[in-house]
Amino acid sequence: MPCAQAPTDQPGPAAPDTSADSASTDSVLGRARQTDAEGHPALGVVDGHGGASAAAEYLRRHDARRERVLTNHPRLGRFLLAVFDDPQSTRAWSVGAEGERMLSEMLASMAGDSLRVLHDRRIPRTRANIDHVVVCPTGVVVVDAKRYRNSRPALRVEGGLIRPRVESLTVGGRDRTALVAGMQRQVALIRAALADRPEVPVRGVLCFIDADWPLIGGSFAINDVAVVWPKKLKAMLAEPGPLNEAQIADLQWELHEAFPRARG
Question: How many Å apart are CA 228 and CA 239, to the nearest integer?
Fold first, then answer.
């Protein structure tokens, strides 16, 4: 709401320059707005920064290792750091952060009043986070970005006739079904936050970036979780649906309140 001007015959403080704020609130990069035109709390079409938590965790581990090596080996520490890289468990956070950042750029290119995004949301009372939450005409889509370079995601099915059918997710031949269970937990949390809106569909997606996808086909679903690549996800999010722009904005705000921005 614009500030009221002081009467001309009475001294008063100069009105603040809000031009920079206006530019930032309209940015698709999603700086949070304080209020909308009617004075209600509002957000930009994109809020948060993809990969921020993962990048911060990588730096924390990297710096802790550096400090530990220099303290334990005052003479050879710099040499050891130059020769030996961070362990894979630390590098994985950097790779993951880059994957989230890449996916966030694609989502930003799609964002608008009919597709709103929340990045890097904190799950209250835990140290965990949700990578991306997209609110679009078809409902709410929870997206976990995974970067397994040159590795192929695949659906493995065992049993079905005599034994119970068991589905598992493999990536590069290794069992990664735990990723599916993690996504199911995130979807359950989102559904609980929207308990008063049971008519809104909530879907979970594992989006693999830089993976070895086949030229034809390749996407699949396992235990109601879609496993796709970025362009496939883009097509899913562009599908028409029953939610209008006002409903999408309301859902984004409700989920923002339930899952605040993660602390980087």
Answer: 15
More confident residue, 65 or 116: 116
Query: Rounded to an integer, what distance in angstroms lies between the CA atom of residue 22 and that of residue 2?
Result: 11
b/e 99-130 (16+ beta carbons within 10 angstroms → b):
bbbbbbebbbebbeebbbbbbbbbbeeeeebb
Angle separating helix axes 88-110 and 230-237, nearest 10 degrees: 40
Beta bridge partners, 261, equal 121
What one-character DSSP code corresponds to residue 40?
A: -
Distance, in Å, from the CA atom of 41 to the CA atom of 47, rounded to the nearest integer, reads 13
DSSP string, 49-74: -TTHHHHHHHHHHHHHHHHHHHHH-T
Q: For residues 147 and 19, which has the higher predicted lDDT (pLDDT)?
A: 147
Tokens 């009475």, residue located: 10
**How far, in Å, CA of 206 to CA of 83, rounded?**
35
Interatomic CA distance for residues 28 and 46, integer angstroms? 6
Residue 258 has pLDDT above 70, yes or no: yes
Burial of 32 (0-12, 13-18, 19+ CB in 10 A): middle
Instruction: Report percent pLDDT > 90 for the chain.
Output: 49
141 CB neighbour count, 10 Å cutoff: 24
